[in-house]
Amino acid sequence: MTSKGPEEEHPSVTLFRQYLRIRTVQPKPDYGTNPTLSSILLNSHTDVVPVFKECWSHDPFEAFKDSEGYIYARGAQDMKCISIQYLEAVRMLKMEGHQFPRTIHMTFVPDEEVGGHQGMELFVQRPEFQALRAGFALDEGLANPTDAFTVFYSERSPWWVRVTSTGKPGHGSRFIEDTAAEKLHKVVSSILAFREKEWQRLQSNPHLKEGAVTSVNLTKLEGGVAYNVVPATMSASFDFRVAPDVDLKAFEEQLQSWCQAAGEGVTFEFGQKWMQPQVTPTDDSNPWWAAFSRACKDMNLTLEPEILPAATDSRYLRAVGVPALGFSPMNRTPVLLHDHDERLHEAVFLRGVDIYTRLLPALASVPALPSES
Ligand code: MET
Ligand SMILES: [Zn+2]
Ligand SMILES: [Zn+2]
Predict the structure, then answer these.
(1) What DSSP character marks residue 289?
(2) Domain assignment of residue 70, given as a range
(3) Which GO terms describe its molecular function (predicted)?
(4) Is 251 part of a structural domain of the chain?
């Protein structure tokens, strides 16, 4: 039982032998080859969004694989696939004995789907984060149904806005003037007209991608107690995603003026208000981009750089000065994140592991930057 062939070796023995191959000899132990350089951060979030179970073809938490190889599960695209792809790529690289100048860190963070306030937003302010000395980060992107891969260099700013309208209450049978509902209706109309304008701007210009215009959806209406009681207060909640080139101060003034134009007693508050949109440069002035895009080119991957329509933890990383790219290596895959029947083909998943095994060496070998010498 002690000398089996390599394919039969007990996995614990394999692990032990791999560990022995790492030359941790003092006084220069081989922990990573140049710890003075900033590190590469591979970030992923562990939380997922809720499901409407009855709308799924398979139990969304069973990870059912159909006869064609599609794996159905909440998180199959967003973004449990990437967590495992990072781990598998790093495992392969370690197994092959690779060493790189830059250290690679992986973070698995909570709460991204509810805004990251107890997750990445806090973490980037902690000494533990500073200690990672991250110089560049990879985080999630979106699948691409074509042959190409999308890579995200910026994000729209989430602004969650609740407009509250107050007015005269009274009996539901009367023509009461100055009601909360009338004024709220005006604000809703102004905002939905703005939505239509942005939609038309997107539709009429084939060069514009979704992330380049501002979107808004009316996502909640609240107020009222009975059919025949005119309420004194009503509110409408909106999910704005503001394009990174928008003047945020002017945009807030616009919100203010829509509310003012609706009449007295119309105010708004923010559930989320991102004020630091950042763009990670996608030209060769950015050595991280140069390494990323070169590695993709070497693999014959077509890249489509875009602004992410949604928001991820990348915004917290970019805001503390860590350039980040949002990349989910899923081509020929419909965008199904947050949707029913979220799924990923196992071949696409496995190809993603291969892609990271090429990307990570390139990124972790970026020579010292001017700021690091
Ligand atoms: C705005 S907080 C981020 C939550 C989620 N990722 C979204 O974009 O909706
Ligand atoms: Zn996500
Ligand atoms: Zn998500």
Answers:
(1) H
(2) 6-155+277-372
(3) aminoacylase activity; metal ion binding
(4) yes
pLDDT value of position 29: 58
* Residue 346 assigned to a binding site: no
The enclosing domain of 174 has a CATH number of 3.30.70.360
To the query of whether residue 283 is one of the catalytic residues in this protein, the response is no
Read off the pLDDT of residues 249-280 as tens digits, 9 standing for 90 and up: 999 999 999 999 999 999 999 999 999 999 99
Whether complex ipTM tops 0.95: yes
Q: What is the DSSP string of 200-238?
A: HHHHH-TT--GGGS-EEEEEEEEE-S-TTEE-SEEEEEE
Q: Which residues line ligand 1 (CB under 6 A)?
A: 112-113, 115, 158, 272, 310-312
Where among 258, 273, 288 does a domain terminate? 273
Task: Give backbone dihedrals phi and psi of 177, rounded to 5 degrees, phi first.
Answer: -90, 155
Q: Is residue 248 in a domain?
A: yes
Q: Which of 7, 9, 30, 47 is an active site residue?
A: 47
| Domain identity same for 266 and 293 | no
Q: What is the pLDDT of residues 283-295, one digit of tens each?
A: 999 999 999 999 9
pLDDT of residue 101: 95
Which of 112, 237, 242, 313 to probe ligand 1 with, by most ligand atoms within 8 A of CB? Answer: 112
| Domain count within the chain | 2
